[in-house]
Each structure stands twice: as structure tokens, then as C-alpha cells.
Amino acid sequence: MQTKIKKDIGIIRSFNRLYTNVLGLLDQHILKSDFSLSEVRVLHEIDKTESCTMKKLSAILCIDTGYLSRILKQFKNYGFVDTRQSPEDGRSKLLYLTECGREKIAELNDRSDEQISSLIEPLSMSNQAKLVQNMTNIETILTNGKNIRIEDITIRNNLKPGDIGYIIYMHGWIYGNEYNYSSVFESYVAMSFYEYLQDYNSNPSRLWIAEHNHEIIGCIGVVGHDDRAQLRWFLLHPNYRGIGLGKRLLNEAMTFCRENSFRRAYLLTSNDLELAISMYQKVGFVKVAAKENNSWRSDLTELVFEIEL
Fold it and tell me: What separation in angstroms does the CA of 160 have from each of 78, 179, 216, 299?
């Protein structure tokens, strides 16, 4: 096993041990109840899962059906859980919480909230935010972004201290990792933002910043040049692609251009950014010029796209 991977595994296992101890996940009875962690999770998933069946529950929790059957039998005896015929499949039975079961899971949820609250209250506000962000990142990475909902992402256009520096950093590492651009590209982006901030109030301009749990995950900007608007800094974190966020940001920028009566909009891009080029073309941009640009990487062609507004 490679030394780097072995070290990473050790860090992950160390975190797992810490977290299970902090929350008491290995206790026989969790949240000062009469139930184990597995039993509480069963109640929780029945409460949250639409059209819940034993098969679906077993898959979600990765619990053996025999063990799950014993838990459900116990919960039926307590009056927490009952079944009814599925309206779509008469052979299938749906699991649901009784009123007593809903009261019990509400009680357990309150205890869990109190436990987490006591854990994070001593932390500073910035460390609370950082903890939530990092946990969100862990979930996003381990699920390949399947947990992300577009409605959980916010878009703002007011600048905050640190925004520009972080966006420059994102350009550097994304274009470096994905397209092998040199650090010269990062300095180019930094200079473009310097010019943008110097002339911020001279023409209608705007920068939209997408955030997930207060972490910047994308952006797009419009810079006004008399009767023309330039689209700039269109960027998405890799974990947030394919959910419609890019289209939403691009639509925000195009609406702004039209509302401010620009005659045309244009943008500069590179021939290797095929996905972005496809999005530009779908909203009506057409290529009007091309030239070699080996500043950031050899074999690049810089493209100019325009659209009449």
C-alpha cells in the first residue's frame, strides 16, 4: 500500500474513532434511550422515506433483512410502527410510524439536537461555520455530489471581504488541475479583478457568487464597456456541475445585460473549454474570432464569442 494512502487511511480512522466517541455511537443505548443506534436509525428512515418498504429500508441502512425484521417486530409490539398495503403493488406492504412512533422519533430528534448544540455552542461562530462546511464537503465527496440540491444553493451579488481572493484561488487550482494551466493564468485572473474593482462604478457591472452552506462554489461576472458587456469569470466547483447551476448563473448574467440595454455581449474563452462553449452557444453566442494563446499552456487557441442583444 502506498505511504500516502496509508497515511490518509490513518487520518480517516482517527476521525471516525473521535466522532463515534464524542456522540456515543458505540453506546448500547443512544441518546439516553432504550434503543441502539441501529434501532433509532430505523425509526428515523421510516419517518423520512417516502413509500417505505422493508426492502428499501434494508438497502438504505445496509442492514440484514433478518435483523431488520426483528427490529420491526419489536417496534410493532411497542406500537411505534405499522404496515398498510401499497396502492401501487398489492403484494407490497408500506411501513409507517404510528402517532406513538412519531412522538418517539420527535423526542429522539430533540435529544439529538440538544447533543449537537452542546457540542458546537462552545465553538466560535467562524469555527461553527467551518465545521458545517467541512461536513457538507465530506458528504458531497463521498456521494459524488448526489446529495446536492439546487434549492440549497444561494446566489448573491454583493461583494464581501475575501470573495475576490477566493475566486482567484479557485481559478488557479481548477484550471491548473483540470487543464494544466500555468500560474500565469492565475496572475491574469488577479489582474482582471484588479481592473474590475478599480472601475467598479464607472459602468453597469456585476458579479454573481454561488454559495453552498456559506462556501463559494461558483461565479459569473459582467463588466460593462459603453454599449457592450463582457462576460467574465464563469466558474463552477467540480462537485457542483450537472445540476443546472451553470445554466442558472449564465441566465442571471444574460438577463442583467438585457435589462441594462447593452447592444451586444461578448466573452473570451479557450478551445479546450468545450462544456462552457456549448452553454454559450445554446444561449445564442457565436464565434467571431480565434487566435493562438500560449501564455497559459502550449497548444491553446483563444476564442471570441458574441451575441446581439
Answer: 53, 29, 11, 37
Residues 131 and 238 occupy one common structural domain: no
- The H or E element that residue 99 is part of is helix 99-120
Distances 184 to 181, 188, 189, 271 between C-alpha atoms, Å: 8, 6, 9, 18
Q: Would the pTM of this model clear 0.90, i.e. be above it?
A: no
Are 230 and 215 members of one domain? Answer: yes
CATH code at position 251: 3.40.630.30
Report helix, strand or coil for 172: helix
Helix (H, G, I), strand (E, B) or coil at 182: coil
Name the 3-class secondary structure at 144.
coil
Residue at a domain's end among 151, 176, 194: 151
Q: CA 180 to CA 105: how far, in whole Å?
A: 51
Strand ranges (DSSP E) for the chain?
Answer: 81-85, 93-97, 153-156, 206-212, 215-225, 228-236, 264-270, 286-292, 301-308
**Can you give 2-59 as a three-state secondary structure string?**
CHHHHHHHHHHHHHHHHHHHHHCCCCCCCCCCCCCHHHHHHHHHHHHCCCCCHHHHHH
Domain count, the chain: 2
Of 96, 72, 75, residue with least CA distance to 84 = 96
Q: Is 4 exposed, middle or buried (0-12, 13-18, 19+ CB in 10 A)?
A: exposed
Position 87 scores a pLDDT of: 81
Confidence of residue 93 (pLDDT cuts 50, 70, 90): confident
| pLDDT average, residue stretch 195-215 | 84
Is the pLDDT at 21 greater than 90? The verdict is no
Question: Of the residues 151, 166, 197, which one is the last residue of a structural domain?
Answer: 151
Cell of 202: 464607472
- The span from the CA of 178 to the CA of 295, in Å, is 17
Rounded Cα–Cα distance for residues 289 and 28 (Å): 69
Is 120 found in the same domain as 18?
yes
Say if CB 207 and CB 157 are below 8 A apart: yes
Which domain range does residue 196 map to? 153-308
